[in-house]
Amino acid sequence: MAAGMWGADPDQLNQLGLTLKRQIEGITAVMSAVNACLANTAWTGPAREQFVADWNGSFTTALTRLNQAFEVAGQDCVVRAQGLRVAMANG
Known about the structure:
By secondary structure, the chain is mostly helical. The chain has one domain. Helix content is 82%, strand content 0%. α1 runs antiparallel to α2.
């Protein structure tokens, strides 16, 4: 792409979208692993209670939002790449 021009390489943009969407699996795996480990950890007391409250509150909320953001951004990249391919084929 020439300097000063706007646009994107459709293949690279599509790859970015797919990469973003693949991250969802990793984040979901982390959440599952922590939940399983936490459920099987012999730990009592206020520190555990605080961690569980934080994990079930702000931590999982943040990770869920991150997954949602990756899904939206990834899909946007894929759709834009398809649009670019159509425009390039017709232009």
